[in-house]
Design goal:
Rna Polymerase Sigma Factor, Chain: A; Arc Repressor Mutant, subunit A; 2 domains; 66% helix; globular
Length: 164
């Protein structure tokens, strides 16, 4: 793929992707860094992109994976992370002598999640039903279930990392 073809296909969707990056990261400066990483990866894979039918979908998937990698490596501290502290963690998730340390680390991890994930997970941990979460957020049933599932998976992965 030539530089001109690349520009025609991928540079024009930058604004849509940037909005996704800001929504996931929480601030525009870090979102710009994520976008730079995305476009660098796209450029490096430019010869493989001929078979991609849905440019936006492909790029969004890559973008979200880059965001997750940054959250996991703690490169970013989203601006909204300090807005509220999460103080409730399911006791069944942590056991033993190190439970308090692990609980604190998980609470800090949850506080760094994107605002939507953090809010939904906090509501669930405080005992809210799916219907109550839907009513409070205005999201669909599928969206709430997907967000809860993905957030739980992230927490499990993080827990496995810190519990080694």
């Amino acid at each position: 793929m030539t530089a001109e073809q690349f520009k025609k296909r991928f540079v024009c969707i930058y604004p849509k992707l940037f909005a996704v990056a800001v929504a996931n990261i929480g601030n525009s400066e870090d979102a710009k860094d994520v976008m730079q990483s995305l476009y660098l990866k796209l450029w490096e894979r430019r010869d493989e992109l001929a078979g991609v039918d849905n440019d936006i979908g492909y790029c969004k998937t890559m973008l979200i994976n880059i965001c997750r990698d940054r959250w996991r490596s703690k490169i970013l501290e989203p601006e909204w992370a300090a807005e509220e502290e999460v103080t409730v963690v399911d006791d069944a998730m942590v056991q033993g002598i190190e439970a308090d340390d692990i609980r604190i680390k998980i609470e800090q991890f949850i506080a760094r999640l994107p605002q939507k994930q953090k809010r939904i997970m906090t509501m669930r941990m405080q005992g809210a039903t799916t219907e109550e979460i839907i009513e409070a957020t205005g999201l669909s049933v599928e969206n709430v279930r997907t967000i809860l599932s993905r957030t739980r998976q992230l927490i499990r992965e993080y827990y496995n990392i810190i519990n080694r």
